[in-house]
Structure formats: C-alpha cells, structure tokens
Amino acid sequence: MSSSTSNTDPAHNSAKIAFIGAGNMARSLIGGLLSRGYPASNIACSDPFEASLIEAGKLGAITTSSSNADIVAQADVVILAVKPQVMADVLQPLTSQLQTSKPLVISIAAGIASGSLQGWAGTGVPVVRCMPNTPALLRAGATGLFATEDVSAEQRQLAEAIVSAVGIVVWVAEESQLDAVTALSGSGPAYFFLLMEAMQEAGEKLGLSAEAAELLTQQTAFGAARMALEGDTDVAQLRRQVTSPNGTTQAALESFEANGMRDIVEQALRAAFLRSEAMAKELG
Ligand SMILES: NC(=O)c1ccc[n+]([C@@H]2O[C@H](COP(=O)([O-])OP(=O)(O)OC[C@H]3O[C@@H](n4cnc5c(N)ncnc54)[C@H](OP(=O)(O)O)[C@@H]3O)[C@@H](O)[C@H]2O)c1
To answer: For the domain bounded by 188-280, which CATH number is listed?
Structure first.
C-alpha cells in the first residue's frame, strides 16, 4: 500500500474530465477540483436529473449535459459517479465509444468489481476503482484506490490528483483490499459517530448539559484527530503521553481494555469486511 496527499498538479490540468452522474460525490469532486484551480472548461458532467445539473452548474462554468455520450466523446477521464445499481445501464450504451477512445475510467461506485466494469466498458479500458467516504463531501475524505493492469503510470497520477481534491488517497495493490478499505474508512465515520454519541450520553449522565457534552465531545474528537494527523508521533505513543500513572485517563483506559475494546473493534471491522465482500458478489 502507498499513500499520498498530492495536490492537483498543474501538469494534469489539461485532461478533460467527464462526470457521469452529478450527485453528491460528483459535485464534491468538482468543487474540490475547481477550488484547486482546475479549469472549469475541462470539466463536464451529465445527469438525467435537471436539478442535479443546475446544482453542479452553480459550482463554476463547467459543461453540463443530459447526454452521457456527448460528454464522454470529449473526455480523457470518465468518472462514474452513479449508484452501483445503474452502472450496467450507464456503461453498456457507451461501450463502442469507450473502446475507440479508451479514456481512463474511474468508478466511485461501491462493490462493483473492475472485471464487471471492463465487461460493460470493453476489454482494455483502463479502470481505477475508488472507495471514498462521506467526509469527502467536506473535502476531508479518505479514499482507497485500485488500478487495473491497463492503467498507465501517468493515468495513476492523474487519478490520484483528481481524487485527492477531496482528501487523502491510499493505493491498494489487490482489488480485494478495497473490502478492507470499506470496513476501515468507508464505514469508519459511523464508528466515530457511535463513540461520540456514547461519550455525549456518558457526559450527560455525569452531570453535564446536553449542549456542553456535545461540544466537548466534538472538539475532543477533532483535536485528537489533528494531533494524530499533524504530528510525527503514532497514536499508541500519543495515548501513553496523555496517560499519567494512576490518573483519570489511566482509569478510563483500563476500563476500556478490561471490557475488550480492541476485540470489539476488530469484530466490528471484520463484520463490515464480510458484508462488503458479500455485497460485491451480489452486485457481480
Ligand atoms: N456519498 C458518499 O459519501 C459516498 C461514499 C462512498 C461511495 N459513494 C458512491 O458514490 C456513488 C455516487 O454516490 P452519490 O452519493 O454521489 O449518489 P447520488 O447523489 O445519488 O448521485 C448519483 C447521481 O447519478 C445520477 N444518475 C442516475 N442514473 C444516471 C444515468 N443513467 N446517467 C447519468 N447519471 C445518472 C443520479 O440521478 P437521479 O437522482 O435522477 O437518479 C444522481 O444524480 C455511488 O455509487 C456510491 O456508492 C458515495
């Protein structure tokens, strides 16, 4: 696995990008690219839903269209930002176009294997699969990326530059590792929400107002994440640094460990991993 936080490189700004589907994820990516100076004239998106195109058009002077084929005709990169259930219907009418121009195809749809995507798009079409998470909507996402053998080194850089407009990216060498990405970061925001919910409830039981417990929990999560991300110290060391012998933190951490916190987390991620594998099989 390799990770990167690379910016959208000006060298990549000339690629023409077509977003199929102008929903939440597409709009977030478009907003991220524009904020990094990506030329609006090189971004197009299509969607059958007029309201989504109007929303996307508010982000900048991008091209909007109700025809997927029209925007794919111009594209160096095609980003599939539709729900998994409609993917086959979206790709099959585009097969001959994709076979001719062989653009880089980036799919953000959960659970659809690259083999299926290439089956609908045509063999030899370079495909990158992404597993983003919801903080991407705030450009604070964490995304796993997998490239098929048909993707060139330059196309990998381009995919990374595009997706890093909404957060950090991590490449995985095996497609099956995207199930682990799903279990860790894809579903991960909800794990933190659950812990925050439990901390808020406990704070209230200890006598704090709901407002105080909520604000203290949120800022503590934010501060802890910043310390983990911005320093050179790993989280185990950070934990030790804030744990004074015989102090309050030690009392809480011993309670967590005695109640099997690590096992609970491992079992939860394993359950998500197995569910991700099963859903991928259902989608084919
Ligand atoms: N949102 C997230 O945080 C998140 C996280 C991880 C992965 N993803 C993945 O990202 C993908 C997009 O998610 P999203 O949240 O952006 O969904 P979304 O808001 O529902 O966007 C999908 C868009 O695609 C449009 N669409 C449907 N059929 C189409 C067609 N034939 N041609 C062109 N556009 C079509 C939809 O239009 P209609 O509304 O008219 O159907 C909708 O505007 C999904 O596959 C999801 O699994 C999302």
So the answer is: 1.10.3730.10
Q: Is the pLDDT of residue 2 over 90?
A: no
Chain-centre distance of CA 242, in angstroms? Answer: 31
Would you say the CB of residue 23 lies under 6 angstroms from ligand 1?
yes
- Decide: pTM greater than 0.70: yes
What dihedral do alpha carbons 49, 51, 53, 56 form, nearest 10°?
-140
Using CA positions, which residue lies closest to atom 24 of ligand 1?
21
The mean predicted confidence, pLDDT, of the chain is 93
Q: Within 10 A of 97 (CB to CB), how many other CB atoms are there?
A: 18
Confidence of residue 6 (pLDDT cuts 50, 70, 90): very low
C-alpha span between 133 and 139 (Å, rounded): 10
User: 109 in ligand 1 pocket by Cβ < 6 Å?
Assistant: yes
Nearest to 61 by CA among 78, 46, 41, 33: 41
Domain 2-181 has CATH 3.40.50.720: yes
Containing H/E element for 275? Answer: helix 261-283
Domains of the chain: which residue ranges?
A: 2-181, 188-280
* Residue 111 Cβ < 6 Å to ligand 1: no
With a CB cutoff of 8 Å and minimum separation 6, the contacts of 171 are 1, 2, 3, 4, 144, 145, 146, 147, 156, 160
pLDDT tens-digit series, residues 159-168: 999 999 999 9
